[in-house]
């Protein structure tokens, strides 16, 4: 019932049955990203965008969550030594691409006319510099965190959305977030973030978005 309600909220339908196809109801890639985020923030489970495309119906989504649900994991307290959950995610990122993608947290937002992409990119850079966890790498040999002293995330133009969403994070050398934008079929810019759950969760989302808005303003 809760999943049906979330699909209604995302797609804008008045009624959703458990066997209705998400995409026949009008769902798009952007809707799938938003549904994934709502399932995470409101239900506490991971429903990857890839699973939405494969399962298609609320019944399929529910079955996927029952068979292979991944509970939300709170961000660990700052420490050089990795927690057990961080070790697990780091291991999966190196040896199991499919399982690792389940820890990707995509967010999608519409950029209204007048938003300056360059200013937004600089605001993102300021925010990355402010929060050490967003510029942290994870050493798989020493099982320690390390701050990466290199250029941070840049807001890039997305060529292929699916590739952007599913691209693997190298947690040893890459920061655990990427950001990009593209124009949809209506020529409206869409802003996309992909975070790795090793550094980001539902609680972090509100803080991140609030501070990004303040930085841009």
UniProtKB/TrEMBL annotation:
Residues 1-69 form the Carrier domain. PROSITE patterns: CARRIER. GO terms for cellular component: cytoplasm. GO terms for molecular function: catalytic activity; phosphopantetheine binding. One of its GO terms (biological process) is secondary metabolite biosynthetic process. This is Carrier domain-containing protein. It comes from Mucochytrium quahogii. The lineage of its organism: Eukaryota, Sar, Stramenopiles, Bigyra, Labyrinthulomycetes.
